[in-house]
Amino acid sequence: MSFPYGLVATDLDGTLLRSDESISQRTRDALAAATAAGAAHIVVTGRAVPWTRHILDDLGYDGLAVCGQGAQVYDAGTHRLLTSVTLDRQLAGVALAKIEAEVGPLYLAASRDGLDGEVLVGPGYAVTGRLPATPFTDASDLWTAPLNKIYIQHPTLGDDELAAVARQTAGGFVTVALAGEGIVELLPLGLSKATGLSLAARRLGLKAADTIAFGDMPNDVPMFAWAARGVAMANAHAELKAVSDEVTSSNEDDGIAVVLERLLA
User: Is 87 within 8 Å of 149 (Cβ atoms)?
Assistant: First the structure.
């Protein structure tokens, strides 16, 4: 059995995971068949390691994972962090001030660096899903330890609008990523899923030309630009569909398996 790609890169939320955070048996089987045919599977997610590890463990996944929007390369087999990029806190502070000068006060959360980095959540910030978070009330608490990213929400602006304003006003200080509903992130300047994936691929002796990537949100655009083929889910954001090579079924309807089964046939 031959498989045309050496690397299968999959986003998690809205892509590999169904809305209840499970992975279907059909998708598990398709990924197992692709890896049996010689491909490596790399999870590439906006989630930092502490929010990703339980999913990888459940998958029996022991390869490399790119977490924190490209900030972390994680070895799931040995539970070790191989690389980690942190946010320059001074630049992040300037970025926040510039965005707030434009749109008024923001609701904030932040992801601390490390294997067990907490996610800190400030007043008003709505956490999506059932992931563990630590509340804070004093904004100065945000800056007391190294961070991978800051999350921002606004009382009235929608995600696309907030991300656009953030890019316009603070794009010279931080990278702005729209990663999901209610998830607008400020990241280290120049960081993307593509930078993390290229590092992980290089460790495996693989290149962009070997890669098929699956995703659903604008934060997957750089990964699609890097990979030989980008496949958007039916439920994907219009911005990602516009740059994809193909649109498959939704994450609820085994979109990844649909494509892998066809390539394996």
Answer: yes
The two structure tokens encoding residue 235: 């439920």
Among candidate residues 49, 91, 256, the one with its CA nearest the CA of residue 187: 91
Where do we find the tokens 């509340």?
Answer: 135
Phi, psi of 64 (to 5 degrees): -90, 145
Q: State pLDDT tens for residues 147-186.
A: 999 999 999 999 999 999 999 999 999 999 999 899 999 9
Smallest CA-to-CA distance from 120 within 90, 96, 150 is with 150
- State how far the Cα of 108 lies from the Cα of 95, in Å rounded to an integer: 13
Strand partners, 186: 150, 176
In order of 31, 178, 183, the CA distances from 145 in angstroms are 37, 24, 22
User: Is the distance from CB of 93 to CB of 143 less than 8 angstroms?
Assistant: yes
Q: What would the pLDDT profile of 131-145 be if each residue is shown by its tens digit?
A: 788 999 888 888 999
At residue 232, the 3 state secondary structure works out as strand
Angle at 258 between CA 253 and CA 259, to 5 degrees: 135
C-beta contacts of 236-239 below 8 A and 24+ residues apart: 236/14, 237/178
Amino acid at 239: E
- Separation CA 253–CA 265 (nearest Å): 19
User: Is there a contact between 136 and 124 (Cβ–Cβ < 8 Å)?
Assistant: no
For residue 246 the two structure tokens come to: 């193909």
Q: What is the longest distance spanned by two Cα atoms in the chain?
A: 58
Q: How far apart are CA 87 and CA 100, in angstroms?
A: 19
